[in-house]
Amino acid sequence: MIRSSLNLTDNSFLNDIINNPHKISELEFDNISKIFKTAKNIFEEEFLLLEFNVKEDVEEVYVIGDIHGNLNTLMKLIEIINKNKPKLVIFLGDIVDRGSKQLECLLIVLILKILFPLKYYILRGNHETLEMNEYYGFFQDFILRFNDRNKFNEILNIYNVLPICALINGTILCLHGGISQDFDILTKLKNQKCKDFEIVYNSIAQGIYQIMWNDPKAELKGFSDSFRGAGIFFFGIDVFENFMKVNALTYLIRAHECFPEGFRWFFNKKLLSIFSSANYRGFYAPNPASYAIIKNNEIIPKLLKL
Question: pTM score > 0.85 for this model?
């Protein structure tokens, strides 16, 4: 057990954790808590709608889909990022639940945010909630490790200050799930600080909820009730195109769904769905992990070779 007090100004220690994630199991909660609180303070000063301008010809943005506790996938992605040095890296949420290394994945992503706050960004997915963590395993995993339900509140405090969307060069929208029935949702999120999430959420709760949960569906017109639950919808090409036109968007990148081919294009290749946890349902239904590269205002999907 690593009992010494963690100094978050000591980058060598944080880098050592990233390079040796097995050491996370040796950290006492007091040190983990410092990571949680430091990351939370960074997120609080960001905006619910992140907006970035990148140089089209030389700078790249890497977009990462669901990780779901898959440490092997995450470490391979970090290796690729360190080699290729993109300008920005955007995680689309769902870092935990289901996988075998959930806390490790969450802490590594948060440490990357602490070390490189202007490079790494994390959006909120539908699994960044207590309800999903209780149902799909992260909550139980955490309680088994630390034997204190109240300590989980520190994770919930992080969830409640995560950005919702990211906009690249004003034309490429990144989010976890899908478009909202409220076509003005981006305007309502713009310039709203993450620390004010609860106030904002109370006024546009349904719109934010749908961004985290909705799914595209080929051969569909309009919005249709989803099997995922009340207030969640499938959306078709017509409403997608209207949403994109209203918001002057060219492409949308989302995660949220696992496909056997790794990624899937929708709607005349204007919507890309990626998923970054390999073999998510086990080896009986394998899938490759995928991610996306934004360069020259175009989207390049990639499969991850493990």
Answer: yes
